[in-house]
Amino acid sequence: MSTSTTALSEKDKSVAQKLLNFGACPRCIFRFCRIGSQDLYRRPYKELLSKLHEFLENTTEENKLPCETANPPYKRIKLDSVKEGEEQTSNGSHQVPNAENDRTAGGDENLRPAVCSICLGILQELCEMDFVKAVCHKINSSEYQFTSFVFSVSFPPQLSVREHAAWLLVKEEMEKQDFLAEKEDLVQLKEAYKWIIHPLFLEQLGVPADGKSLFEVSVVFAHPETDEDCHFLASACPSCFKQEKNKQSVFTRMAVVKALDMISEEDFLKNFQCPLTSPKEPCTAVDIQCTNGAIFVAGRYNKYSRTLPQTPWIIDGERKMESSVEELISEHLTAAFKADSFNFSSSGREDVDVRTLGNGRPFAIELVNPRKVRLAAEEMKELQQIINNSSDKVQVRDLQLVTREAIGHMKEGEEAKTKTYSALIWTEKAIRNEDIELLDNMKELKLDQKTPLRVLHRRPLAVRVRVIYTMQSEYIDEHHFRLHLKTQAGTYIKEFVHGDFGRTKPNIGTLLGTTADILELDVESVDVDWPPTLDDK
Asked: Which of 130, 201, 332, 413 is least crowded, fewest Cβ atoms below 10 Å from its Cβ?
């Protein structure tokens, strides 16, 4: 095999032969010889093995360990035993008779190649088209909408142990040649795997792999046959292996890698069996999951009921109200985008007995793992209409898809913007129109508001300075008037009216010299210029 075909040079020959004797597959040999040609890894496995043997044809017979023959497919053998029909050379290495002598014509064409002792089959049949088709079947049956994908894999932790054993072998051989290399110079298994498998997914799915894609396909591989490969590390490096919540085993990949960094070469070789035994079976994919990154839908809502909480009202495990603003909106969005769950947020909140009028309150809903990730403008309008037709308690407008970053505009408005309210107020003392006119002339009225008693269970005790920018009164009768207020966001309006037992100063009671209480409160505007207004025609 010419060096242009393999990308291996003469200096790689001894390392390649050692790895082949070690039970490595051609692609692992390329990795350990630091070959970075992606096209080479993508070539058919049979071709790679055949060409590799051609490259090594000048290697002496006694150094060949035929874990895989030059005429694939190949018979699987164990490296730690002499099977029936094998010949043993004078130096103890095992030879397999020519494969042509023990097969009928075409009789073993469907046999598996021997499983690689390093990658445990990951760079063999598990990166071939049959495996990719099985994963794509799972993807297509899940009905996800996507234009690209990110492919993530989780390999069994014992692969790190086997790679370390192979590296020590390679390192020893390189030192004989006065050649220096670091373990970090090797082509990582995950990198080589993706070089091979990404083009196959593109062929099957018709969309490219993209590390920034929101659609993730994740595969978890396992190899129970070699699980015990890691166990000696627990005795050698006990500090690396501690039981964690939600972890079935202490032998996580991170813990194993940490232990391999700590253990000396001498201790490793003393405790881990080298050469490796050839596995009987390759890794298996024990879990294939598809997930879409969250999408965000924003809009503004009006709330017309005085018996509807913004979020589910549950006290001591008991539900107090039938529904909520959050549920009346989110249930339709979750169904339309086929999401697993949702998270609701808004620019502030109103009490259960407070209406939100005018242009409404900005809100955003995070839809978790949606199968659909986009709707046409007309479809969004139809969805908005479905929500509005489902209840007379809540109406939405300007419904649209937004980015995660854009939600920051809404949260900024909670403290930085102004809000306008309308309050129906009762006074104990009889009042005349001129008694309340003094309120109209007050501008930039500063309040000291101690955390209200009604929210003290969920808010820290503090005194907050808030500003009433303007007030406009409407006289109704000698005990009632309506007050329109423009305030700083975060102002407690109810407490400004009744004083909260003196915890808000000044308040309407002290300003008018009478006991006052609030009968009704409406939010007339939330002055946050987000989300953008849409043409609903």
From this structure: 130
Catalytic residue (one of 227, 351, 353, 527): 351
User: Is the separation of the CB atoms in 532 and 523 below 8 Å?
Assistant: no
pLDDT of residue 352: 95
Which of 122-126, 204-208, 261-265, 395-399 has the lowest average pLDDT? 261-265
Does residue 351 have an active-site annotation? yes
Q: Residue 375, Cα to own-chain centre: how many angstroms?
A: 23
- Residue in 357, 367, 519, 522 with CA at minimum distance from that of residue 428: 519
Q: How far apart are CA 193 and CA 132, in angstroms?
A: 12
Q: Please report how many Cα atoms fall inside a 13 Å half-sphere around the Cα of residue 392, on the Cβ side.
A: 0
At position 457, the amino acid (one-letter code) is: H
Summarize the confidence of residues 163-188 as an average pLDDT: 85
Residue type (1 letter), 489: A
| Ramachandran region, residue 473 (left: φ > 0; alpha: ψ -120 to 50; beta: rest) | beta
pLDDT of res. 247 = 67
Q: Parallel, antiparallel, or unpaired for β 87-88 and 318-319?
A: unpaired
Q: Is 524 helix (H, G, I), strand (E, B) or coil?
A: strand
Q: Which residue, among 342, 297, 293, 344, has the nearest Cα to 145 in the 3D structure?
A: 293
**Distance, CA of 398 to CA of 405 (rounded, Å):** 18
pLDDT of residue 88: 38
- Crossing angle, helix 158-176 and helix 13-22, to 10 degrees? 140
Is the pTM here over 0.70, yes or no? yes
Are residues 251 and 157 in contact, defined by beta-carbon separation less than 8 angstroms? yes
CB 187 within 8 Å of CB 123: no
**Nearest Cα to Cα of residue 522 among 423, 393, 426:** 423
Instruction: Decide: helix, strand or coil at residue 521.
Output: strand
pLDDT (mean) for 65-79: 36
Does residue 5 carry a pLDDT above 50? no
As beta bridge partners, residue 140 has none
* Cα angle, residue 416 at apex, residues 412 and 418 outer, rounded to 5°: 120
- For residue 183, the model assigns a pLDDT of 81
Pairing of the two strands 418-427 and 445-450: unpaired
Residue 393: CB partners within 8 Å, gap ≥ 6? Answer: 303, 304, 305, 308, 323, 328
Q: Which residue has the tokens 């915890």?
A: 503
Helix axes 13-22, 45-55, angle to 10 degrees: 120
Radius of gyration (C-alpha) of the chain in whole angstroms? 36
* pLDDT score, position 76: 33
Alpha helices in 56-126 (DSSP H): none
Statement: residue 286 has pLDDT above 50? yes
Helices 325-337 and 377-390 cross at an angle (nearest 10°) of: 140
Question: Lowest mean pLDDT: which of 158-167, 274-283, 290-299?
Answer: 274-283
